[in-house]
Amino acid sequence: MLLRTEGRAFHWYCFFTCFLCILALMITVTDLSLGFGERSLFKDVNLKFTPGNCYGIIGANGAGKSTFLKILSGEAEHDKGEVSIGKGERIAVLRQDHFAFEEYPVIDTVIMGFPKLYDIRKERETIYAKEDFSEEDGLRASELEADFAELGGWEAEAQAGQLLSGLGLDESDYQSVDREKLMSELDESRKVRVLLAQALFGNPDILLLDEPTNGLDLESISWLEEFLMDFPNTVIVVSHDRHFLNAVCTHICDIDFGKITLYSGNYDFWYQMSQMLQRQARDLQKKNEEKARELREFIQRFASNASKSRQATSRKKVLEKLDLENVHVTSRKFPYAGFKPGREIGNNVLRIEKLCFDFEGAPVLRDFNLTVNRNDKIAFVGIEHVSKSAVFDIITDSVKPASGDYYWGQTTSFSYFPKESSVFFNSTLSITDWLRQYSPDEDETYIRSFLGRMLFSGDEALKPVNVLSGGEKVRCMLAKMMLSGANVLILDEPTNHLDLEAITALNHGLEAFPGVILFNSHDHEFINSIANRIVEIVPSGNGKDGGAPGAVIDRMMPFDDYLRDDSVKALRAAAYRHTERLRI
Ligand SMILES: Nc1ncnc2c1ncn2[C@@H]1O[C@H](COP(=O)(O)OP(=O)(O)OP(=O)(O)O)[C@@H](O)[C@H]1O
Ligand SMILES: [Mg+2]
Question: Whose CA is nearest to atom 14 of ligand 1?
Fold first, then answer.
């Protein structure tokens, strides 16, 4: 009996300590509020995030997802309320911008995940690089040496290398024969892995990820899904990718109307639940409207009737209390994307001949040829992501090829949506003034009408462009393209950052476009519904750069047919010398 009681006491003890541990590891958000000018982004948000769970943050473009993550990590301020995190907890972040470390070596980027060590390492290198090494420098160097050793500086590079290889990168990805490679030399799927290694460097207790699947091909996304499912600590991830959210999330936090509502379960569960709540809200609204109509009729009929006037007054009060405004369904909206060419396109569109291009000493394109016809909507697919972007950059005169030529037809005019658009937004111009730069007509109403289609109305159109969210920047770039009147649209992964409503709108806009489109995307449905021709850049298999990309598999057919085509399968097997699964 005694034993049993002791056993039970022990159980309680364990339970209690676990409970305390969970409390200590929890992130608690209390009465959080934030507004920008008139607009309130969050109002009185209360949430708790507990270890072992994966929370998916969802919401329309501009709803405040990235801002919320920045508040959790302490990078952004809030107006009111509190975020408390267990003592000694380490938060690591993978930001929405995958191009922020382009000029840094890959290994350095990983070590930056531990800022204190990174700073000491840098200062140490600078001191040792000095030609006139003073006594003071000597003293500082010895201090730095001690700190460097204590923080594990000697092992850091090896650890970073181990993390990278665990995440599927080869040594050749970060080290060539004579030098360290830079982030700019990696394609986006490798960049994300390096940024994840950065986040994991130093064992975080809480991992915050902002749209990690952007720029990842399908295989890398499944790899990330498995990685997160095995990650034992707290994960909070922003994403618009339904499949990904379903695979990894134990909970969903929906941001809408300045509130963040927590649901248990994955995305599909949230979807069912939100549909049901919306139905209930609509029913309630209908009932309220009916009741209001009856009350109004009664008040109108009997307001001047002395015997019923008291009843009329009391019904007036009921009517005032009836909350017709506050039955919110959803604030998610569809933008409108319509592209009208200024002139019809002629027969000669674009001829590309023997393009060669190297990047940081590595061959990216070898003897690439392509002729584009007037009805083409070409999707560029396959694993050679850097080569695809290089073709787009060259033909839009953004970079110069090493050799080769390209000839645009006389009737053509192009508009380009590059993969990396942040250079366009380093400005404090308002959205309206920003767009005016690209408009043939400077009239305010004309410009505002394009912004309205992209869901920037009223004061929203006066925001400075440097504060825009990822998806809002994409919508601005699309408005710029809509104004261009171009008859050739070139888009390098336009679906990244966009919410589902915006992807659907862009999809429809491009399907209806009567000109030529050259594009790529990781969204299967988007490619399949727009493209009538598929071009896959594959290793060229000739000369001394035999493995360099440049040859093409080229078929006038939709994507699903391309995937099933036996002759394509044979060509792919020969090009890759093994069966390479097609990735986009
Ligand atoms: N300093 C600021 N002044 C005014 N508005 C701002 C400021 N900073 C951010 N915003 C606005 O706050 C909103 C939320 O931005 P945030 O980047 O958090 O959105 P998001 O939900 O991550 O969107 P996306 O899905 O497009 O990445 C946006 O409309 C943005 O323009
Ligand atoms: Mg964002």
Answer: 64
Architecture of domain 34-41+52-78+205-291: 3-Layer(aba) Sandwich (3.40)
Q: Which CATH superfamily is domain 350-413+485-576 in?
A: P-loop containing nucleotide triphosphate hydrolases (3.40.50.300)
Task: Identify the band that residue 19 occupies on the pLDDT scale cut at 50, 70 and 90.
Answer: very low
Site of tokens 């000491």: 120
pLDDT tens digits, 225-240:
888 998 889 999 999 9
Nearest CA, atom 1, ligand 1 = 467
pLDDT digits (tens, 9 = 90+) for 40-53: 999 999 999 999 99
Length of the chain: 584
Q: What share of the chain is helix, strand, coil (3-state, %, to 5)?
A: 45, 20, 35
**What residues pack around ion ligand 2 (CB closer than 5 A)?**
65-66, 96, 469-470
Q: Which atom of ligand 1 is nearest to the CA of 59?
A: 21
Residue type for position 168: G
The neighbour count for residue 369, using CB atoms within 10 Å, is 14
Domain layout of the chain by residue ranges: 34-41+52-78+205-291, 102-204, 350-413+485-576
Residue 222's contacts (CB-CB under 8 Å, 6 or more residues apart) are none
Average pLDDT over residues 526-544: 86
Q: Is the pTM of this model over 0.85?
A: no
**Distance (Å, whole) CA 519 – CA 205:** 40
| Distance between Cα 490 and ligand 2 center (Å) | 24
Q: Which two tokens stand for residue 326?
A: 């506050």
469 within ligand 1 shell (Cβ under 6 A): yes
* SS3 state at 423: helix
Of all protein residues, the one whose alpha carbon is nearest to atom 5 of ligand 1 is 36
Q: Whose CA is nearest to atom 17 of ligand 1?
A: 469
